[in-house]
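> forwarded from #structure-qc
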């Protein structure tokens, strides 16, 4: 049975951790939170589209808790979006080759906060005697290669967020959310039926202006690696750039990204509106 009180409580502890906790003094703005059921057909569809290695919520839960018997529809995926601060976006918007120092800090130290948030959410449910697991912190999460999409993993935080009604994918592979695509995401799977978030879209590209009559190419122009084109995002070019050029420019970056395609674009901080022409 759905438990709206626990859903509201889960959302409040996620937001409180980011907004009021000393763990997050400068990295993230107020989060968005969404919920999807473990039996949502999308999770099985990911196996078909990404690869058979992509785990469903039930598969991850069963690996984490082999002694607990449960069904997919008894699980809820709690997803969240951590929007970049206005300061971080402003700094990175000015750059054309390397990420700004503030962006690097949010990508590295800020993601450490996201890791603590995952643990915080799991601990909350465990204290309430509900089994919970954060897929990216489990020993079962690993990087994979998809025959169709190349570099991938067996659980994607962005795909979980899409299933949870939090956004759709852009040409650059970023997730465009109501707070834009300058963000990070996270998720936890809990053995508890919570009210799901209705997806306000019908297509996985619904919010991207490139796939409208506008044919926006802002992220193509923003990418210093030439990794984004009209046919999509070249993950190899992107990775090579971040692991060589960007890493050499800032040793703290560890080749983890640059985020230029997430800033200085119409979908930086919102779902872009198609202009009337």
């Amino acid at each position: 049975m759905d438990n709206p009180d626990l859903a509201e409580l889960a959302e409040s502890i996620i937001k409180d951790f980011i907004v009021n906790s000393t763990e997050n003094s400068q990295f993230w703005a107020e989060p968005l939170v969404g919920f999807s059921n473990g039996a949502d057909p999308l999770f099985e569809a990911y196996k078909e589209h990404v690869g058979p290695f992509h785990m469903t919520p039930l598969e991850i839960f069963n690996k984490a808790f082999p002694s607990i018997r449960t069904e997919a529809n008894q699980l809820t995926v709690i997803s969240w979006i951590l929007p970049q601060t206005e300061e971080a976006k402003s700094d990175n918007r000015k750059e054309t080759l390397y990420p700004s120092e503030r962006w690097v800090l949010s990508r590295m130290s800020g993601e450490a906060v996201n890791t603590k948030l995952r643990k915080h959410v799991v601990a909350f449910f465990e204290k309430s005697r509900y089994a919970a697991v954060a897929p990216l912190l489990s020993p079962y999460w690993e990087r994979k290669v998809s025959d169709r999409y190349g570099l991938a993993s067996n659980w994607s935080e962005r795909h979980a967020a899409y299933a949870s009604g939090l956004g759709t994918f852009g040409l650059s592979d970023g997730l465009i959310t109501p707070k834009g695509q300058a963000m990070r995401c996270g998720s936890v799977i809990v053995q508890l039926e919570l009210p799901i978030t209705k997806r306000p879209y019908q297509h996985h590209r619904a919010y991207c202006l490139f796939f409208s009559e506008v044919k926006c190419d802002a992220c193509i122009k923003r990418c210093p690696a030439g990794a984004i084109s009209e046919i999509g995002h070249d993950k190899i070019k992107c990775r090579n750039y971040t692991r060589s050029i960007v890493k050499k420019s800032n040793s703290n970056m560890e080749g983890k990204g640059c985020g230029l395609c997430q800033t200085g674009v119409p979908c930086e901080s919102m779902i872009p509106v198609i202009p009337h022409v």
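QC bot note: The chain has one domain: 4-262. The helical segments are 4-19, 41-49, 57-64, 86-93, 101-127, 157-163, 218-222, 235-249.
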